[in-house]
Design goal:
This protein is an alpha+beta fold. It has 26 helices and 17 strands. The model has no long low-confidence stretch (mean pLDDT 97).
Protein backbone atom coordinates (compact mmCIF):
# COMPACT_ATOMS: atom_id res chain seq x y z
CA UNK A 1 0.00 0.00 0.00
CA UNK A 2 1.05 3.57 -0.62
CA UNK A 3 0.07 6.32 1.82
CA UNK A 4 -0.52 3.79 4.57
CA UNK A 5 2.31 1.99 6.33
CA UNK A 6 0.14 -1.09 6.71
CA UNK A 7 1.39 -1.73 10.26
CA UNK A 8 0.09 -1.37 13.79
CA UNK A 9 2.24 -1.53 16.92
CA UNK A 10 0.57 -3.44 19.74
CA UNK A 11 2.01 -2.87 23.23
CA UNK A 12 0.93 -5.04 26.16
CA UNK A 13 1.97 -3.31 29.37
CA UNK A 14 1.08 -6.27 31.58
CA UNK A 15 3.34 -8.64 29.69
CA UNK A 16 5.92 -5.96 28.89
CA UNK A 17 5.77 -7.03 25.25
CA UNK A 18 5.42 -5.22 21.93
CA UNK A 19 4.57 -6.71 18.56
CA UNK A 20 4.18 -5.33 15.06
CA UNK A 21 1.08 -6.44 13.20
CA UNK A 22 0.15 -5.97 9.59
CA UNK A 23 -3.47 -5.15 8.82
CA UNK A 24 -5.34 -5.99 5.62
CA UNK A 25 -5.86 -3.49 2.81
CA UNK A 26 -9.58 -4.03 3.33
CA UNK A 27 -9.37 -2.25 6.69
CA UNK A 28 -7.74 0.76 5.06
CA UNK A 29 -10.36 0.90 2.33
CA UNK A 30 -13.30 0.51 4.71
CA UNK A 31 -12.14 2.69 7.63
CA UNK A 32 -9.20 4.67 6.17
CA UNK A 33 -7.46 5.56 9.45
CA UNK A 34 -7.63 7.77 12.53
CA UNK A 35 -11.09 7.60 14.04
CA UNK A 36 -12.05 4.85 11.58
CA UNK A 37 -9.26 2.55 12.79
CA UNK A 38 -9.96 3.43 16.43
CA UNK A 39 -13.68 2.67 16.13
CA UNK A 40 -13.00 -0.66 14.41
CA UNK A 41 -10.44 -1.80 17.00
CA UNK A 42 -12.62 -0.74 19.94
CA UNK A 43 -15.65 -2.52 18.48
CA UNK A 44 -13.67 -5.70 17.79
CA UNK A 45 -11.53 -5.85 20.93
CA UNK A 46 -13.30 -4.12 23.82
CA UNK A 47 -15.90 -6.54 25.17
CA UNK A 48 -19.31 -5.21 26.23
CA UNK A 49 -19.33 -4.09 29.84
CA UNK A 50 -15.57 -3.59 30.05
CA UNK A 51 -14.57 -1.19 32.83
CA UNK A 52 -12.96 1.72 30.95
CA UNK A 53 -10.30 2.06 33.64
CA UNK A 54 -9.43 -1.65 33.69
CA UNK A 55 -6.48 -3.27 31.90
CA UNK A 56 -8.96 -4.69 29.38
CA UNK A 57 -9.69 -1.32 27.80
CA UNK A 58 -7.63 -0.37 24.75
CA UNK A 59 -5.80 2.94 24.41
CA UNK A 60 -5.37 3.80 20.74
CA UNK A 61 -3.24 6.34 18.93
CA UNK A 62 -4.20 6.43 15.26
CA UNK A 63 -3.29 8.45 12.17
CA UNK A 64 -4.58 8.46 8.62
CA UNK A 65 -3.09 8.17 5.14
CA UNK A 66 -2.52 11.94 4.88
CA UNK A 67 -0.94 12.37 8.32
CA UNK A 68 2.66 13.53 8.23
CA UNK A 69 2.94 14.28 4.52
CA UNK A 70 4.07 17.83 3.55
CA UNK A 71 0.55 19.15 3.04
CA UNK A 72 -1.36 21.74 5.09
CA UNK A 73 -2.01 20.93 8.75
CA UNK A 74 -1.28 17.21 8.51
CA UNK A 75 0.22 16.79 11.99
CA UNK A 76 -2.90 15.37 13.65
CA UNK A 77 -3.40 12.30 15.80
CA UNK A 78 -6.56 10.61 17.08
CA UNK A 79 -6.44 9.29 20.67
CA UNK A 80 -9.27 6.93 21.58
CA UNK A 81 -10.64 4.41 24.07
CA UNK A 82 -13.87 3.37 25.71
CA UNK A 83 -14.70 6.51 27.68
CA UNK A 84 -14.67 6.44 31.50
CA UNK A 85 -16.76 9.63 31.46
CA UNK A 86 -19.61 8.40 29.24
CA UNK A 87 -19.29 4.63 29.05
CA UNK A 88 -19.42 4.90 25.26
CA UNK A 89 -16.92 5.46 22.49
CA UNK A 90 -14.50 8.30 23.20
CA UNK A 91 -11.81 10.02 21.19
CA UNK A 92 -9.99 13.28 20.67
CA UNK A 93 -7.78 14.83 18.04
CA UNK A 94 -4.62 16.72 18.83
CA UNK A 95 -1.85 18.28 16.82
CA UNK A 96 1.50 16.87 17.80
CA UNK A 97 4.89 15.84 16.49
CA UNK A 98 3.87 12.42 17.82
CA UNK A 99 1.55 12.07 14.81
CA UNK A 100 4.30 12.68 12.29
CA UNK A 101 6.90 10.67 14.20
CA UNK A 102 4.59 7.67 14.62
CA UNK A 103 4.04 7.56 10.88
CA UNK A 104 7.77 7.92 10.20
CA UNK A 105 8.41 5.10 12.65
CA UNK A 106 6.37 2.93 10.29
CA UNK A 107 3.05 2.73 12.15
CA UNK A 108 -0.45 3.92 11.36
CA UNK A 109 -1.66 3.14 14.87
CA UNK A 110 -0.49 2.08 18.30
CA UNK A 111 -2.72 -0.09 20.49
CA UNK A 112 -1.85 -0.08 24.20
CA UNK A 113 -3.41 -2.77 26.38
CA UNK A 114 -2.99 -4.15 29.88
CA UNK A 115 -1.52 -2.23 32.81
CA UNK A 116 2.07 -1.69 33.88
CA UNK A 117 2.95 -2.58 37.46
CA UNK A 118 4.53 0.83 38.04
CA UNK A 119 4.75 4.20 36.26
CA UNK A 120 6.06 3.64 32.76
CA UNK A 121 6.98 5.54 29.61
CA UNK A 122 6.73 4.02 26.15
CA UNK A 123 9.73 4.83 23.94
CA UNK A 124 9.57 4.12 20.20
CA UNK A 125 12.70 4.78 18.17
CA UNK A 126 12.23 3.56 14.64
CA UNK A 127 11.66 -0.18 14.85
CA UNK A 128 12.81 -0.33 18.48
CA UNK A 129 10.25 -0.29 21.31
CA UNK A 130 11.14 0.03 24.99
CA UNK A 131 9.21 0.41 28.24
CA UNK A 132 11.06 2.75 30.59
CA UNK A 133 10.76 3.40 34.31
CA UNK A 134 8.83 6.65 34.75
CA UNK A 135 8.61 6.81 38.55
CA UNK A 136 10.50 10.11 38.60
CA UNK A 137 7.98 11.63 36.20
CA UNK A 138 4.89 10.44 38.10
CA UNK A 139 3.24 13.30 39.91
CA UNK A 140 4.76 15.94 37.64
CA UNK A 141 2.68 18.35 35.63
CA UNK A 142 2.48 17.63 31.93
CA UNK A 143 4.76 20.59 31.07
CA UNK A 144 7.65 19.52 33.30
CA UNK A 145 7.32 15.87 32.36
CA UNK A 146 7.48 16.70 28.66
CA UNK A 147 10.45 19.02 29.14
CA UNK A 148 12.38 16.34 31.06
CA UNK A 149 11.80 13.92 28.21
CA UNK A 150 12.58 16.52 25.57
CA UNK A 151 15.90 17.29 27.24
CA UNK A 152 16.83 13.66 26.66
CA UNK A 153 15.21 12.89 23.30
CA UNK A 154 15.35 16.24 21.51
CA UNK A 155 13.10 18.92 20.12
CA UNK A 156 11.84 16.89 17.17
CA UNK A 157 10.65 13.92 19.25
CA UNK A 158 6.90 13.34 19.47
CA UNK A 159 5.94 13.39 23.14
CA UNK A 160 2.54 12.75 24.72
CA UNK A 161 2.03 13.03 28.47
CA UNK A 162 -0.63 13.04 31.13
CA UNK A 163 -0.72 15.30 34.16
CA UNK A 164 -1.75 14.47 37.73
CA UNK A 165 -5.43 14.46 36.65
CA UNK A 166 -4.76 11.48 34.39
CA UNK A 167 -2.79 9.74 37.13
CA UNK A 168 -5.64 10.29 39.59
CA UNK A 169 -8.18 8.99 37.03
CA UNK A 170 -10.23 12.18 36.77
CA UNK A 171 -12.96 11.23 34.30
CA UNK A 172 -12.27 14.20 31.99
CA UNK A 173 -8.47 14.04 32.05
CA UNK A 174 -6.89 14.36 28.63
CA UNK A 175 -3.56 13.90 26.89
CA UNK A 176 -1.18 16.85 26.48
CA UNK A 177 1.56 17.59 23.96
CA UNK A 178 3.79 20.52 23.05
CA UNK A 179 2.95 22.70 26.02
CA UNK A 180 -0.79 23.09 25.50
CA UNK A 181 -2.02 20.89 22.65
CA UNK A 182 -4.69 18.72 24.24
CA UNK A 183 -6.91 15.86 23.10
CA UNK A 184 -9.19 13.22 24.52
CA UNK A 185 -12.04 15.10 26.24
CA UNK A 186 -13.99 11.95 27.21
CA UNK A 187 -11.30 10.92 29.70
CA UNK A 188 -8.69 9.39 27.41
CA UNK A 189 -6.00 10.77 29.74
CA UNK A 190 -7.58 8.83 32.59
CA UNK A 191 -7.41 5.64 30.51
CA UNK A 192 -3.71 6.34 29.95
CA UNK A 193 -3.28 6.90 33.69
CA UNK A 194 -5.16 3.69 34.53
CA UNK A 195 -2.47 1.84 32.59
CA UNK A 196 0.31 3.53 34.59
CA UNK A 197 1.49 5.06 31.32
CA UNK A 198 2.87 8.52 32.03
CA UNK A 199 4.26 9.31 28.60
CA UNK A 200 4.79 8.16 25.05
CA UNK A 201 7.93 9.24 23.18
CA UNK A 202 8.20 8.59 19.44
CA UNK A 203 11.19 9.14 17.19
CA UNK A 204 10.61 8.10 13.60
CA UNK A 205 13.62 7.16 11.52
CA UNK A 206 11.94 6.43 8.19
CA UNK A 207 10.11 8.34 5.49
CA UNK A 208 6.53 8.12 4.30
CA UNK A 209 5.96 6.57 0.90
CA UNK A 210 3.43 8.19 -1.40
CA UNK A 211 2.09 6.72 -4.62
CA UNK A 212 3.09 9.93 -6.40
CA UNK A 213 5.69 11.66 -4.20
CA UNK A 214 6.52 14.42 -6.67
CA UNK A 215 2.87 15.07 -7.36
CA UNK A 216 2.05 15.21 -3.65
CA UNK A 217 5.00 17.50 -2.97
CA UNK A 218 3.90 19.87 -5.72
CA UNK A 219 0.31 19.81 -4.49
CA UNK A 220 1.54 20.65 -1.00
CA UNK A 221 3.57 23.64 -2.21
CA UNK A 222 0.60 24.91 -4.21
CA UNK A 223 -1.80 24.34 -1.31
CA UNK A 224 0.36 26.19 1.21
CA UNK A 225 0.56 29.08 -1.23
CA UNK A 226 -3.22 29.01 -1.78
CA UNK A 227 -3.91 29.31 1.96
CA UNK A 228 -1.80 32.48 2.11
CA UNK A 229 -4.04 34.14 -0.49
CA UNK A 230 -7.29 33.67 1.43
CA UNK A 231 -8.95 36.96 2.51
CA UNK A 232 -9.29 35.94 6.15
CA UNK A 233 -5.73 34.65 6.50
CA UNK A 234 -4.23 37.82 7.98
CA UNK A 235 -6.90 38.22 10.64
CA UNK A 236 -6.76 34.50 11.42
CA UNK A 237 -3.03 34.77 12.09
CA UNK A 238 -3.75 37.61 14.50
CA UNK A 239 -6.53 35.99 16.51
CA UNK A 240 -7.08 32.37 15.50
CA UNK A 241 -10.17 30.90 17.13
CA UNK A 242 -10.26 33.73 19.67
CA UNK A 243 -12.23 35.90 17.23
CA UNK A 244 -15.11 33.49 17.83
CA UNK A 245 -15.70 35.03 21.25
CA UNK A 246 -16.88 38.35 19.85
CA UNK A 247 -18.89 36.46 17.20
CA UNK A 248 -20.57 34.34 19.88
CA UNK A 249 -21.37 37.39 21.96
CA UNK A 250 -22.84 39.20 18.96
CA UNK A 251 -25.02 36.21 18.09
CA UNK A 252 -26.04 35.40 21.67
CA UNK A 253 -24.49 31.94 21.80
CA UNK A 254 -21.66 32.60 24.29
CA UNK A 255 -22.23 30.23 27.25
CA UNK A 256 -22.68 32.40 30.32
CA UNK A 257 -23.37 31.42 33.95
CA UNK A 258 -23.75 27.70 33.23
CA UNK A 259 -25.57 28.27 29.94
CA UNK A 260 -28.28 30.46 31.42
CA UNK A 261 -27.54 33.20 28.90
CA UNK A 262 -25.90 33.70 25.53
CA UNK A 263 -24.17 37.01 26.24
CA UNK A 264 -21.63 38.06 28.88
CA UNK A 265 -21.34 41.63 30.20
CA UNK A 266 -17.53 41.49 30.14
CA UNK A 267 -17.07 39.69 26.83
CA UNK A 268 -14.93 42.46 25.35
CA UNK A 269 -12.41 41.95 28.15
CA UNK A 270 -11.79 38.31 27.24
CA UNK A 271 -12.17 38.33 23.45
CA UNK A 272 -9.79 38.28 20.53
CA UNK A 273 -8.86 41.95 20.67
CA UNK A 274 -8.15 41.74 24.40
CA UNK A 275 -6.01 38.69 23.65
CA UNK A 276 -3.94 40.62 21.10
CA UNK A 277 -2.94 43.10 23.81
CA UNK A 278 -1.29 40.40 25.96
CA UNK A 279 -0.13 38.08 23.19
CA UNK A 280 3.57 37.19 23.29
CA UNK A 281 3.91 34.48 20.62
CA UNK A 282 2.19 31.83 18.55
CA UNK A 283 2.43 28.04 18.39
CA UNK A 284 1.19 25.60 15.84
CA UNK A 285 0.92 21.95 15.00
CA UNK A 286 3.36 20.27 12.60
CA UNK A 287 3.04 21.10 8.90
CA UNK A 288 0.77 24.10 9.58
CA UNK A 289 1.12 27.55 8.02
CA UNK A 290 -1.93 29.07 9.76
CA UNK A 291 -0.89 28.56 13.38
CA UNK A 292 -3.73 29.14 15.83
CA UNK A 293 -2.07 28.71 19.23
CA UNK A 294 -2.06 32.23 20.64
CA UNK A 295 0.31 32.42 23.59
CA UNK A 296 -0.31 35.14 26.16
CA UNK A 297 1.18 36.23 29.43
CA UNK A 298 -1.20 35.19 32.21
CA UNK A 299 -1.91 36.59 35.67
CA UNK A 300 1.12 34.76 37.05
CA UNK A 301 3.48 36.08 34.39
CA UNK A 302 3.63 32.68 32.69
CA UNK A 303 2.79 31.66 29.15
CA UNK A 304 -0.62 30.19 28.39
CA UNK A 305 -1.89 29.01 24.99
CA UNK A 306 -5.47 30.12 24.35
CA UNK A 307 -8.29 29.24 22.01
CA UNK A 308 -11.98 30.09 22.02
CA UNK A 309 -13.32 27.04 23.82
CA UNK A 310 -11.18 27.31 26.93
CA UNK A 311 -11.77 31.06 27.23
CA UNK A 312 -15.53 30.74 26.77
CA UNK A 313 -15.78 27.97 29.36
CA UNK A 314 -13.28 29.31 31.91
CA UNK A 315 -14.38 32.91 31.34
CA UNK A 316 -17.99 33.68 30.50
CA UNK A 317 -19.45 30.39 31.66
CA UNK A 318 -18.11 30.85 35.19
CA UNK A 319 -18.27 34.66 35.25
CA UNK A 320 -14.58 35.62 35.03
CA UNK A 321 -14.09 38.76 32.93
CA UNK A 322 -10.31 39.12 33.19
CA UNK A 323 -8.39 37.42 30.38
CA UNK A 324 -5.14 37.17 32.33
CA UNK A 325 -6.96 35.29 35.08
CA UNK A 326 -8.74 33.08 32.57
CA UNK A 327 -5.35 32.37 31.00
CA UNK A 328 -3.86 31.37 34.34
CA UNK A 329 -6.65 28.86 34.97
CA UNK A 330 -6.24 27.55 31.43
CA UNK A 331 -2.50 27.01 31.92
CA UNK A 332 -3.15 25.33 35.24
CA UNK A 333 -5.65 22.96 33.60
CA UNK A 334 -3.27 22.09 30.76
CA UNK A 335 -0.44 21.39 33.18
CA UNK A 336 -2.66 19.24 35.40
CA UNK A 337 -4.07 17.47 32.33
CA UNK A 338 -7.70 18.53 32.73
CA UNK A 339 -9.98 19.17 29.79
CA UNK A 340 -10.79 22.88 29.93
CA UNK A 341 -14.26 22.53 28.40
CA UNK A 342 -15.45 20.01 30.97
CA UNK A 343 -13.65 21.89 33.74
CA UNK A 344 -15.51 25.13 32.97
CA UNK A 345 -18.72 23.16 32.79
CA UNK A 346 -18.41 21.36 36.14
CA UNK A 347 -17.28 24.56 37.87
CA UNK A 348 -20.24 26.46 36.41
CA UNK A 349 -22.51 23.68 37.64
CA UNK A 350 -20.96 23.91 41.14
CA UNK A 351 -21.36 27.69 41.19
CA UNK A 352 -25.05 27.39 40.38
CA UNK A 353 -25.49 24.67 42.99
CA UNK A 354 -23.79 26.92 45.54
CA UNK A 355 -25.92 29.90 44.56
CA UNK A 356 -29.08 27.81 45.08
CA UNK A 357 -27.81 26.41 48.40
CA UNK A 358 -27.86 22.85 47.09
CA UNK A 359 -24.31 22.36 48.34
CA UNK A 360 -22.65 23.75 51.48
CA UNK A 361 -19.56 25.03 49.72
CA UNK A 362 -19.58 28.70 48.77
CA UNK A 363 -18.16 29.39 45.33
CA UNK A 364 -19.45 32.54 43.66
CA UNK A 365 -19.61 33.46 40.01
CA UNK A 366 -16.30 35.00 38.94
CA UNK A 367 -14.47 34.01 42.13
CA UNK A 368 -10.96 33.50 40.73
CA UNK A 369 -9.31 32.25 43.91
CA UNK A 370 -12.06 29.72 44.57
CA UNK A 371 -11.81 28.47 40.98
CA UNK A 372 -8.08 27.87 41.33
CA UNK A 373 -8.60 25.99 44.59
CA UNK A 374 -11.47 23.94 43.15
CA UNK A 375 -9.41 23.06 40.08
CA UNK A 376 -6.76 21.54 42.33
CA UNK A 377 -9.41 19.79 44.42
CA UNK A 378 -10.88 18.25 41.26
CA UNK A 379 -7.45 17.04 40.16
CA UNK A 380 -6.62 15.45 43.51
CA UNK A 381 -10.19 14.41 44.29
CA UNK A 382 -10.64 16.36 47.50
CA UNK A 383 -14.04 17.23 48.95
CA UNK A 384 -16.42 18.75 46.40
CA UNK A 385 -13.69 18.25 43.81
CA UNK A 386 -13.98 14.49 44.22
CA UNK A 387 -17.62 14.60 43.08
CA UNK A 388 -16.93 17.02 40.23
CA UNK A 389 -14.00 14.90 39.02
CA UNK A 390 -16.57 12.32 37.90
CA UNK A 391 -18.22 14.81 35.52
CA UNK A 392 -21.38 16.89 35.61
CA UNK A 393 -23.75 13.98 34.92
CA UNK A 394 -22.47 12.12 37.98
CA UNK A 395 -22.56 15.28 40.10
CA UNK A 396 -26.20 15.95 39.18
CA UNK A 397 -27.16 12.40 40.17
CA UNK A 398 -25.26 12.87 43.44
CA UNK A 399 -26.89 16.22 44.29
CA UNK A 400 -30.31 15.19 42.97
CA UNK A 401 -33.42 17.31 42.69
CA UNK A 402 -33.65 19.93 39.99
CA UNK A 403 -29.91 19.85 39.25
CA UNK A 404 -30.53 17.35 36.44
CA UNK A 405 -32.26 20.04 34.38
CA UNK A 406 -29.18 22.27 34.33
CA UNK A 407 -26.45 19.64 34.22
CA UNK A 408 -25.13 20.62 30.80
CA UNK A 409 -24.12 17.41 29.04
CA UNK A 410 -25.23 14.91 26.42
CA UNK A 411 -24.54 11.22 27.11
CA UNK A 412 -22.29 12.27 29.98
CA UNK A 413 -19.94 14.51 27.97
CA UNK A 414 -20.09 18.15 28.98
CA UNK A 415 -21.29 20.58 26.31
CA UNK A 416 -18.65 22.70 24.58
CA UNK A 417 -18.76 26.44 24.05
CA UNK A 418 -22.06 27.29 22.32
CA UNK A 419 -25.40 28.06 23.92
CA UNK A 420 -28.34 26.62 21.99
CA UNK A 421 -31.42 28.31 23.42
CA UNK A 422 -31.89 29.77 19.93
CA UNK A 423 -29.91 27.31 17.79
CA UNK A 424 -31.89 24.11 17.01
CA UNK A 425 -29.43 22.74 14.44
CA UNK A 426 -26.50 23.13 16.83
CA UNK A 427 -28.56 21.43 19.53
CA UNK A 428 -29.10 18.52 17.12
CA UNK A 429 -25.37 18.47 16.40
CA UNK A 430 -24.65 18.14 20.12
CA UNK A 431 -27.39 15.54 20.52
CA UNK A 432 -26.11 13.28 17.75
CA UNK A 433 -22.34 13.75 18.07
CA UNK A 434 -20.76 10.27 18.41
CA UNK A 435 -18.87 11.31 21.55
CA UNK A 436 -21.51 13.22 23.47
CA UNK A 437 -21.80 17.02 23.39
CA UNK A 438 -18.85 18.13 21.27
CA UNK A 439 -18.79 20.80 18.57
CA UNK A 440 -15.95 19.30 16.55
CA UNK A 441 -18.12 16.89 14.54
CA UNK A 442 -20.58 19.43 13.18
CA UNK A 443 -19.98 23.10 13.99
CA UNK A 444 -23.24 23.96 12.25
CA UNK A 445 -23.97 27.09 14.25
CA UNK A 446 -22.03 29.39 11.89
CA UNK A 447 -24.21 28.23 8.99
CA UNK A 448 -27.34 28.35 11.15
CA UNK A 449 -26.78 31.98 12.11
CA UNK A 450 -26.79 32.88 8.41
CA UNK A 451 -29.58 30.50 7.39
CA UNK A 452 -32.00 31.47 10.18
CA UNK A 453 -32.23 30.52 13.84
CA UNK A 454 -35.92 29.76 14.23
CA UNK A 455 -36.45 26.83 11.87
CA UNK A 456 -36.45 23.10 12.65
CA UNK A 457 -36.67 21.94 9.06
CA UNK A 458 -35.09 19.29 6.88
CA UNK A 459 -32.37 21.59 5.59
CA UNK A 460 -30.93 21.79 9.11
CA UNK A 461 -30.88 18.02 9.47
CA UNK A 462 -29.18 17.72 6.08
CA UNK A 463 -26.56 20.28 7.06
CA UNK A 464 -25.72 18.49 10.31
CA UNK A 465 -25.22 15.22 8.46
CA UNK A 466 -23.19 16.93 5.73
CA UNK A 467 -20.84 18.43 8.30
CA UNK A 468 -20.59 15.21 10.29
CA UNK A 469 -19.47 13.44 7.11
CA UNK A 470 -16.73 16.03 6.66
CA UNK A 471 -15.64 17.25 10.08
CA UNK A 472 -16.30 14.03 11.99
CA UNK A 473 -15.64 11.89 8.95
CA UNK A 474 -13.05 12.86 6.34
CA UNK A 475 -10.88 15.03 8.57
CA UNK A 476 -10.94 12.51 11.42
CA UNK A 477 -10.08 9.44 9.35
CA UNK A 478 -7.80 11.04 6.72
CA UNK A 479 -6.36 12.40 9.49
CA UNK A 480 -5.70 16.14 9.06
CA UNK A 481 -6.88 19.41 10.58
CA UNK A 482 -10.18 20.88 9.40
CA UNK A 483 -9.30 24.51 10.19
CA UNK A 484 -7.86 25.46 6.76
CA UNK A 485 -11.27 24.63 5.28
CA UNK A 486 -13.41 25.91 8.15
CA UNK A 487 -11.61 29.14 8.95
CA UNK A 488 -10.00 30.49 5.79
CA UNK A 489 -11.99 28.76 3.06
CA UNK A 490 -9.38 26.32 1.73
CA UNK A 491 -11.41 24.33 -0.78
CA UNK A 492 -12.52 20.77 0.01
CA UNK A 493 -11.59 19.61 -3.48
CA UNK A 494 -7.94 19.58 -2.44
CA UNK A 495 -8.44 16.55 -0.20
CA UNK A 496 -9.36 13.92 -2.82
CA UNK A 497 -6.34 15.18 -4.77
CA UNK A 498 -4.10 14.71 -1.73
CA UNK A 499 -5.51 11.21 -1.21
CA UNK A 500 -4.93 10.29 -4.85
CA UNK A 501 -1.31 11.42 -4.75
CA UNK A 502 -0.67 9.77 -1.38
CA UNK A 503 -2.46 6.45 -1.89
CA UNK A 504 -2.86 6.12 -5.63
CA UNK A 505 -6.60 5.68 -5.10
CA UNK A 506 -9.10 8.06 -6.66
CA UNK A 507 -11.70 8.36 -3.90
CA UNK A 508 -15.00 9.90 -4.98
CA UNK A 509 -17.01 12.01 -2.56
CA UNK A 510 -19.69 9.32 -2.44
CA UNK A 511 -17.04 6.81 -1.35
CA UNK A 512 -15.69 9.17 1.30
CA UNK A 513 -19.21 9.81 2.59
CA UNK A 514 -19.80 6.06 2.68
CA UNK A 515 -16.72 5.58 4.88
CA UNK A 516 -17.92 8.39 7.15
CA UNK A 517 -21.37 6.81 7.45
CA UNK A 518 -19.80 3.42 8.16
CA UNK A 519 -17.66 4.84 10.96
CA UNK A 520 -20.56 6.82 12.46
CA UNK A 521 -22.84 3.80 12.39
CA UNK A 522 -20.21 1.53 13.93
CA UNK A 523 -19.67 4.03 16.76
CA UNK A 524 -23.44 4.23 17.28
CA UNK A 525 -23.55 0.41 17.39
CA UNK A 526 -20.86 0.45 20.09
CA UNK A 527 -22.93 2.82 22.24
CA UNK A 528 -26.05 0.71 21.79
CA UNK A 529 -24.16 -2.50 22.60
CA UNK A 530 -22.88 -0.93 25.83
CA UNK A 531 -26.22 0.46 26.98
CA UNK A 532 -28.40 -2.39 25.70
CA UNK A 533 -32.08 -2.17 26.59
CA UNK A 534 -31.53 1.09 28.48
CA UNK A 535 -30.70 2.83 25.21
CA UNK A 536 -33.38 5.22 23.92
CA UNK A 537 -33.78 8.39 21.89
CA UNK A 538 -33.50 10.30 25.18
CA UNK A 539 -29.73 9.77 24.86
CA UNK A 540 -29.77 12.19 21.92
CA UNK A 541 -31.74 14.99 23.59
CA UNK A 542 -29.90 18.02 25.08
CA UNK A 543 -30.40 19.27 28.66
CA UNK A 544 -33.78 20.50 29.84
CA UNK A 545 -32.43 24.00 30.49
CA UNK A 546 -32.55 24.82 26.78
CA UNK A 547 -36.19 23.70 26.56
CA UNK A 548 -37.50 25.15 29.84
CA UNK A 549 -35.50 28.26 30.78
CA UNK A 550 -35.70 31.16 28.34
CA UNK A 551 -32.88 33.63 27.73
CA UNK A 552 -33.48 36.77 29.79
CA UNK A 553 -31.28 39.23 27.92
CA UNK A 554 -29.77 40.02 24.57
CA UNK A 555 -31.15 39.97 21.00
CA UNK A 556 -32.84 36.61 21.56
CA UNK A 557 -34.42 37.45 24.91
CA UNK A 558 -37.26 34.99 25.59
CA UNK A 559 -35.86 32.29 23.29
CA UNK A 560 -35.81 28.60 24.17
CA UNK A 561 -35.91 25.36 22.21
CA UNK A 562 -39.20 23.68 21.30
CA UNK A 563 -38.90 20.08 22.46
CA UNK A 564 -41.63 18.70 20.23
CA UNK A 565 -40.07 20.27 17.14
CA UNK A 566 -36.61 19.10 18.21
CA UNK A 567 -37.84 15.52 18.50
CA UNK A 568 -39.41 15.70 15.04
CA UNK A 569 -36.07 16.91 13.71
CA UNK A 570 -34.28 14.09 15.57
CA UNK A 571 -36.55 11.46 14.00
CA UNK A 572 -35.85 12.96 10.59
CA UNK A 573 -32.13 12.65 11.33
CA UNK A 574 -32.57 8.98 12.27
CA UNK A 575 -34.41 8.21 9.05
CA UNK A 576 -31.73 9.84 6.95
CA UNK A 577 -29.07 7.87 8.83
CA UNK A 578 -30.95 4.61 8.34
CA UNK A 579 -31.55 4.21 12.07
CA UNK A 580 -34.87 3.31 13.69
CA UNK A 581 -37.01 5.56 15.90
CA UNK A 582 -34.79 4.70 18.90
CA UNK A 583 -31.66 5.82 17.06
CA UNK A 584 -30.49 2.24 16.51
CA UNK A 585 -29.10 1.22 13.09
CA UNK A 586 -31.36 -1.13 11.15
CA UNK A 587 -30.24 -4.44 9.67
CA UNK A 588 -30.61 -2.99 6.18
CA UNK A 589 -28.31 -0.08 7.03
CA UNK A 590 -25.70 -2.31 8.62
CA UNK A 591 -25.71 -4.58 5.58
CA UNK A 592 -25.53 -1.63 3.20
CA UNK A 593 -22.50 -0.23 5.00
CA UNK A 594 -20.64 -3.53 5.05
CA UNK A 595 -21.20 -4.06 8.78
CA UNK A 596 -23.01 -7.38 8.53
CA UNK A 597 -20.92 -8.87 11.36
CA UNK A 598 -22.24 -6.14 13.69
CA UNK A 599 -25.80 -7.44 13.39
CA UNK A 600 -25.34 -10.65 15.39
CA UNK A 601 -23.46 -8.81 18.14
CA UNK A 602 -26.08 -6.08 18.49
CA UNK A 603 -28.95 -8.56 18.49
CA UNK A 604 -27.57 -10.01 21.73
CA UNK A 605 -28.37 -6.68 23.39
CA UNK A 606 -31.39 -5.20 21.58
CA UNK A 607 -33.98 -6.13 19.02
CA UNK A 608 -32.91 -4.89 15.60
CA UNK A 609 -35.42 -3.76 13.03
CA UNK A 610 -35.17 -4.77 9.41
Amino acid sequence: MHGWNGKILRVNLTRQKAAVQEYPAEMAMNFMGGRGFAAKVIWDEVKPGTDPLSPDNKLIFAAGPLTGFPIPSSGKLVVAAKSPLTGGYGDGSLGSQAAVQMRKAGYDAIIVEGRAESPTALLIQGESTQLLDAKELWGMGSFEAEQRLRDVYGQSAGILTIGPAGEKLVKFANIISQGGRAGGRPGIGAVMGSKNLKAVVIIGLGELKAADPNGLRNLGVEAYREILTKPNYGFWKRQGTMSTLEWSQENSVLPTFNYREGIFDYAELIGGFAMEKIKVSQRGCPNCNMTCGNVVEDANGEESELDYENVAMLGANIGIGDLKKVSAINRMADDLGLDTISLGNVIGFAMEASEKNIIEEKISWGDYESVKALTEDITYKRGLGSVLSEGVKFASLKFGGETKTWAMHVKGLEISGYDCHAAPAMALSYGTCPLGAHHKDAWVISWEVKAGREGYGEEKVDKVIELQRLRGGLFEFATVCRLPWVEVGFELEWYPKFLKAATGIDFSWSELHQIADRVYTLIRAFWVREYGKSWSKEMDIPPERWFKDSLTKGPFKGAKLDKEKYEIMLQMYYRKRGWDERGIPTKATLNKLGLKDVISELQKKVELKS
